[in-house]
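Database export, one record per block. Field names are fixed; values are copied verbatim from the stored entry.
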Amino acid sequence: MTANPAPTTIPHAELDNFTFTSESVSEGHPDKICDQISDAIVDAFLAEEPQSRVAIETAVTTDYVGIFGETRGPDSITRDRMEELGRETIKKIGYDQKGFSWKTARFDVRAHSQSVDIAQGVDAEGAGDQGIMFGYACRETESLMPAAIQYSHDILRSIAEARHSGALKGIEPDSKSQVSLEYKNGMPVRATSVVLSTQHAESLSQEDVREAVRPFIEKTLPEGWMPSEDEFYVNPTGRFVIGGPVGDAGLTGRKIIVDTYGGSAPHGGGAFSGKDPTKVDRSAAYVARYIAKNVVAAGYADRCTIQLSYAIGVAKPISVYVNGHDTATVPEPVIVEAIKKAIDLSPRGIREHLELNKPIYARTAAYGHFGRAPEADGGFSWEKTDLVDALQKEIG
């Protein structure tokens, strides 16, 4: 694993010197267990019938998993199959402990058919609901993501990989990270503090845990960015043995800021996991990130926020908004018009352009939906920068 390079400096017209913090949670966090189960079910439906409709919520607590919602798709995805997918997901995360195990947890599956009132609007190629969705990109990292959330995700993902491989012993699935960065001239220059709370085996001391996780933080942050020892917090309560759904209940969709930009950008309020791509909460948020990233990659802004809005049953966005945060190299209205010509922003157009009717969602449900590398099977297609040429053609 190599450290991320330190970003270069760009000017801001907003606050230039400040400290900003973002957090992430691991795949073993109770809310993230729920997101992953819900998206595993979405994937199962789309794998058999790409036009399936799915809106699934999951709840977990001690020895219990509840799965609820609406679906329309192949009869093969039965309640028993949903339970199997839930157990497989829990096993993959690594939960086989007293109080929460993939083997013994009790399942209650209450899924039913999608509302015909909602279905008629979606089937007519309109949006599945009204709402506002935001996308964001900036030059703080190579992935064009805000640095604090990107590093928070990367720390936890690297720890999870080592835990799964067996290289890291005694660290359990439930964990959180929090990274605070000092900004000068509008760009991050160092970490002022890092907080890492992780569930661990009872046999490990707090010093054992501290030293076990330290290398993953040092390798993730750019060289020289590690905070002082008194600002490096590991399990600040002193102990974290009881974790996961035994320690706290979880629900789908409760980590929407973790899933997006760590607070660096607005959020429309809709969660992603458990929803098929006809739901604009998900697909329009993905295309908004795609557009913002391509605007920045094309050189039209150093920071870019996109807002899209939709009305249920209407097959076009109600509005398209661009904010270059005083870094735009061309007027924002020009960028708006270029976007409208470069990509079809109808719900159907989004799904077709990004090829979203595929089983690609379970992998998004931990460590962020954005800032990930595009994958050969269509996963994270919204992270591509293949709209740059179309934007440049329109803007000139």
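Remark 1: Residues 7-13 have pLDDT under 50 and may be disordered.
Remark 2: Residues 122 and 156 are 37 Å apart (CA to CA).
End of record.
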